[in-house]
Amino acid sequence: MLPSDPRTLIDLIEARATRTPGQAAFYWDDQPVSFAELWQGVNRFAVLLGERGVARGDRVLIRLANGPDFFLAFYGAIRAGAIAVPVFPASGPERIAALARLCGADIVVVPGAGSEKIPGLRAVSVAESAQYPTDGTFPAVAPEDVAFLQYTSGSTGLPKGVMLSHQGLLTNIGQLIEGMAITAADCFVSWLPVYHDMGLILMTMVPFSLGAKLVLLPTALANARPWLSAIARYRGTLTAAPDFAYRLVLRYVRDPSAYDLSSLRVALNAAEPVRPRTIEEFERAFGLQNVVIAGYGLAEATVGVCTWPPGEPALVDERGVVSVGRGFTGIDIQIIEDDQPVAAGHIGEIAVRSPANTRGYYSDEAETSSLFWRDGYIRTGDLGYLDGADNLFVTGRLKNIIKHGGETIFPQEAEQIADRLPFVRRSAAVGIDSGGPEGEQLYVFAEVSKAAGNDEPAFHDAAVDVVEATYAQLGIRPGRVYLLRPHGIPLTHNGKTQHAALRQRYLSGELRADNAILFPAY
Amino acid sequence: MLIDLDDVGRTVGLVLGRRDPKADDRIQADLGGESIDVLNIVVTLEQKYGISIDEAAMANVSTVRDLYQLLLKSPDAAIRPKNPD
Fold this sequence. Notes:
The complex is a heterodimer.
Chain A (H helix, E strand, L loop, with lengths): L8 H11 L4 E5 L2 E4 H17 L7 E4 L5 H12 L3 E4 L6 H11 L3 E3 L12 E3 L21 E7 L7 E6 H14 L7 E4 L6 H14 L2 E4 L8 H10 L3 E4 L1 H10 L13 E4 L6 H11 L5 E6 L6 E4 L15 E3 L6 E6 L2 E2 L6 E6 L11 H7 L6 E9 L5 E6 L4 E3 L2 E3 L1 H9 L4 E9 L8 E8 L7 H19 L5 E5 L14 H9 L2 H4 L3 E3 L3
Parallel strand pairs in A: 1-10, 3-4, 3-5, 5-6, 9-10, 11-12, 12-13, 24-25
Antiparallel strand pairs in A: 1-2, 7-8, 13-14, 15-20, 16-17, 16-18, 18-19, 19-20, 21-22, 23-24, 25-26
Chain B lengths: L4 H12 L18 H15 L14 H9 L13
Helix pairs in contact in B: 1-2, 1-3
């Protein structure tokens, strides 16, 4: 740790730049970027933002992919007194504009001069700050200030901005370090997106905080090989990914012995349901033991709540659920049903109290008040139980949400996107795991009107439009889009979509047998 | 089922949300496909044509045309190129 504990993220970066200026903050494209370079770039960009009128508390959208510019923009915005708002960089202009309206931002950091214009937003790039001075007058940043907003999917169809304070972030960083026994000797290898909490906090803020080595890779991995070869080349000790990424490796890497992963101490498997088979097969393929550990967390608790202790054999219950371990220091987990705590062994909603819990969603009082149970406990919307030793097992979800490639999506959000297309009468989004290596995926079922046309080529184009619109808004592509005849989606008497019934009718083949599916024919 | 290059391109486009992928478009670099999308392309083609694709060979697939040529190598006898390329 640093000699005097930093109170803000800015203190943290400044302390590193002062004490170990020449040390690499991270490696990008095999090139080191030192803490001194990082700090100078942060200050230059903060000066530029100040000159552009960005003031304390303003929101600055950051539309950048993994790479050095992200960090300059992110910490530069915070240095300038603003609240950073990382957004999925491939989001379409409509999505960016919608997020800007939600958080009241009027400026967005983009990759460069050629970037697409977004109506109503001023654009700025890190490159523009290259000739700026590194000294300026910056607003004081306080530990309780919101450092950034993490947007997550919302049940009303609008995303919610989780407010993350410096204090909460530094607390969770400490919890992660202790819970996963991380030290300055660890070497992090990460391709996780830095514009999302696990990739940003666990995989970059934690190594910055310790001065541990960080090898950062692009998110758009052509396949799993760059990840594995970076671990092998840098002798990586710590990596993290959702379950699907480990499954991808197992499916695509024909010769695991070509990659020496023996340096790995921890391979965290989190952000979507953990399959025990993935852990077993990955460890067997690469000759590892007790390295892949399951973890659990949520943006509302900053990011990490618990992980299985590294080095210990995984604990799997009779249902085949892998334990995600005990809460980190300072975290209390309760299982509740009908607003009351239940005893060990009983399944209920998981509620989490942590000093790193968010104080709520940015300018969204309704969602904020429904987030809390009592005494600072956050309702997670996940179902699970604690065993007699307080080990948490996550068994399912209370809320109707979809987990797709490590992202959490509320069906309403995907449905609103499809419903806006002129040829869609009504749509339903469901999470479906067909048992294949791709895992649970977002499936969009759209009842179409005559406007969709009446032949295969027209239906094909309509389905392409659904995928395109979903990707532009949510940053993920549905696993499947099915176009249905009118009334193909089962409804309740009062006209609400019956998601569970739809999923069941699809999986049993009834939807196809009843001729409800117009497209595709397979 | 007969497969042709255009049809493979259309299926890739369906998964990726692209109307008209070209045969020489690279699935990842040009069309923006991510790992999970590539997996979905494989699963979709398998369902559509009733074949199984050698996933390990997918590592050498860059363009739509590469993918088509991989499908032609499938051991499933039903497959014949409609327009030999």
